[in-house]
Amino acid sequence: MKTLKLYFATNRKHDGRDRWKPTGYLTRFSDDGAENLRFGRLELTVPEADVRACLAEDCGFGPGNGNRLAGVLAQRMKKKGALAIEAFRETLDPTKPDTQQAAKVFGSQAMFQELQDEMRACSDVLVFIHGFNVSWEDAVASALALQESLNQPDAGKPAQRVLVVLFSWPSDGKALPYVSYKSDRTDALASGGAVGRAFLKMRDFLLKVRTLDLRGRDQACGQEIHLLCHSMGNYVLQAALDRLYEHTPGNTFPRMFEHIFLCAPDVDDDVLEPGKPLGAVHELAQHVTVYSNRGDVSMYISDYTKGHPERLGHNGPARPVQLHNKVHAVDCTAIVTGLVEHSYYQDGRINQDIRLSIASVPFDSPLRRRTRSPDLPNVWAMT
Fold this sequence. Notes:
single chain, 9 helices, 383 residues
């Protein structure tokens, strides 16, 4: 048996009587409100052979079937005793703002301290924001599958250890995506404030760590923090930047991430241009990569409900020439096949491309097997 560990933050309402040791989380906001987060960790035991089999399976565009692994893990979570969840305890007065708390202990402090210890042990951290129509169980399964996939070696090189931190918002997780889409979009917008607050806490944490490093009193092992947003999770990020902008001196975002991966983004295709909602996202990271797929059926659901077809995850950026030079666009249409046309970031060569970025492999490396546009140096196509 193998024990998989996952850190998480959520604004979902807990399931069960004990909020600190819940049985899971529901499809509505916490009683504390949409902007209040609960931080925690969980462990899931799973047969190691099942994990190895999924990671070795060819998904149709390379080895590694993360989507199948997510399904295996979701089923495993239903087995009694396989899953243990613990939220970090906190002491605070919910009627007062953070600055007026007398004796406060925040769950975020405990989690960030553990993450700092993990980074000292030479692990990168990747924050994962899932998309629409995703239950708590499916969010956990996807995050754990992503974590296992990202820790695979490439081209005979040892893998860069990566620890995934899940942010889960109350997506409906219903069987009918047309029904849940509009509800999820409203909840995604409301969840932006919670993510924005988490980013502010992360900013303060990183400022403390990096200051200590400069003074020579602490060592963070030079590890990096990354962000991956999938589908409507990109809309959550868009709303989060509004909150971050309000609390950022000089209105210039601090660099908090090494890489930001926007996977199948369910946002407008011009959103990364100057003056648009994600036009300054490059300030948060050293590199930003957008993955799109013109065969993405879920983008058609978004097109239908929004009334127009221009989605970033479907066609890629509307005017690539207007993007900041930190932003790279990758068209995955030529290789994505089967039923994973929307969640392809979990599988095969797309997941490998993300791993190679985390490992600081150059964008034009032959290991990536993608071609650069002759006219636009930051536009690529998987081949």
